Amino acid sequence: MITDLKINEEKKKEYYEKGYWTHDTIRDVWERQARANADKEYVADDQGCRMTYGEVDDAASRLAAWLVSQGIKPGDVVTLQFPNWAEFTIAYVACFKTGAVIQSLARNFNGADLTYAMNLVESRAYIGPTSFHGVDYEQQILDIAGDIPTLKVIALVDKKAPKQTDLPTVAEIVATTEPLAEKVPVESDQVACLLSTSGTTGKPKEVMLTHNNILFSERVFVEGLERTADDVMWMPAPLNHAVGFFHGLVAPMLLGGRSVLMQDFAVKDAIDLINAEGATWSMCSTPFIYDIVKYLDAHPDESLPTYVLHSCGGKLIIADEPTPGLDLSLAQAALADFRAFADAGGGVMLITHDIELALTVADRVAVFRDGTVVEETAVANFASPDTLAHPFSRELWHALPEHDFVVPSASQLAGQGDEEGGPHA
User: Fold this and answer.
1) CA separation for the pair 279, 232 (Å, rounded)
2) What is the full DSSP assignment across 395-406?
3) What pLDDT shows up at residue 403?
4) Which CA distances in Å does 73 have to 99, 100, 154, 397?
């Protein structure tokens, strides 16, 4: 059970005053949208499942009532292990209705992975497939249940294969359980979701995200990209990831929009799905759109007429003081590699005190002072102090050995020597 989250009170007060955070939980927002858009389709997947806001809400309310009857309380962790299936929406909304904390895990987690991750957070319940892509998830969770002392509740999704045991399925639960009668008390600063780190530097860790964390992030996301209720999200990224879950399902829900989930990415199938569903946008990693664009370049007779926005990360190197300890020739060679990377379409953020060296490869320079960017300008403007806007930038220019090598005075270091004030960094 996760109920003792510590939040910086000063920042919390600031975020509420600025309107970043509110008293709404994801459940509150969902229920408003479900009432307003009851007959509108919320989610579809490429396996044939389609559900309206009203259908998801009704099924989720019934699953939530069952979870409560099984002893699930606010703060209890419910582990979800799903492929990109529309039925995930029933499970996630049900968890938020109960005040439970969602732990969404990768569909390729085996028994050992599940045991570690679920014990780490003392998971109380598990919902996952009966079988998928040759993996018997039903037997897998039964095999490890005894190794997870807190695990008390298991439910299955029999989308691809019938169950083999007496464990209940979500479909059976929904068909036989009345909707949740009373709202469970939940607050917006409580933990809503746990997402696992990749585990590349050790055992995976769990990141705690509150209702406010998620809602603020997704509000800014959809507002910044100017999306509307008419947009259709295409989502091939996995639901155990912030991209798949939050961008793929929570963001469209905030808009009253629609989401289309793709179980397994294949470029031609993706293009056909986007066109069939009239998808207009997505946010997922670069390889997805790279493969699509490459395919379309090779097939000029095909197109994506409705797909207007794909948001993704690019190639970026953050090089924090990469040259100290290197002789000049090695330092120059390292920066030449960065320059070649940028010339090939990548991005490089070079953080350095070696201004001379940086000016040989950079396109633009951001000058920091006291942790704040005081000027951001083209490299060409460092040809003369007269073309630099900020006094501190001009002082840095003069302090370079090939110029006047003027060191700031003691009064300047004390914050009394220029119009900006403050000590020099």
Assistant:
1) 5
2) HHHHHSTTTT-P
3) 74
4) 7, 6, 15, 62
- Could you tell me which of 9, 34, 189 has the C-alpha nearest to residue 99? 189
Q: Are 67 and 100 in contact (CB under 8 A)?
A: yes
| Closest residue by Cα to residue 241 from 292, 271, 204 | 204
Closest CA to 54 of 29, 66, 36: 36
| pLDDT at residue 303 greater than cutoff 60 | yes
Look at 11 and 404; give whichever has higher pLDDT: 11
Report CA 88 to chain centroid distance, whole Å: 17
Helix (H, G, I), strand (E, B) or coil at 85: coil
Question: pTM for this one?
Answer: 0.75
Q: What is the DSSP letter of 248?
A: I
Higher-confidence residue of 198 and 133: namely 133
> Is the pLDDT at 291 greater than 60, yes or no?
yes
Which pairs from 387-391 meet CB under 8 Å and 24+ separation? 390/420, 391/418, 391/419, 391/420
**Other CB atoms within 10 Å distance of the CB of residue 64:** 26
CA–CA gap between residue 37 and residue 257 (Å, rounded)? 9
Q: Which residue has the tokens 């939980």?
A: 25
Render pLDDT for 184-228 as a digit per residue (tens, 0 to 9): 999 999 999 998 876 666 788 888 999 999 999 999 999 999 999
Q: Please say if the pLDDT value at position 76 is more than 50.
A: yes
CA distance 311 to 374: 29
Q: Which helix (H) or strand (E) holds 156?
A: strand 153-157
Q: What's the whole-number mean pLDDT along residues 36-45?
A: 98
Strand order through the sheet with 153-157: 153-157, 125-129, 77-80, 101-104, 191-196, 206-210
Any idea what DSSP says for residue 372? Answer: E
Question: What gap in Å lies between CA 135 and CA 142, rounded to an integer?
Answer: 13
Size (the chain), residues: 425
**pLDDT one-digit tens code per residue, 304-359:** 999 999 988 666 777 888 877 677 888 888 888 888 878 877 788 888 888 888 88
Q: How far apart are CA 399 and CA 395, in angstroms?
A: 6
Q: DSSP letters of 179-223?
A: PP-SPPP--TTSEEEEEE---TTSS--EEEEEHHHHHHHHHHHHH
CA distance 317 to 343: 13
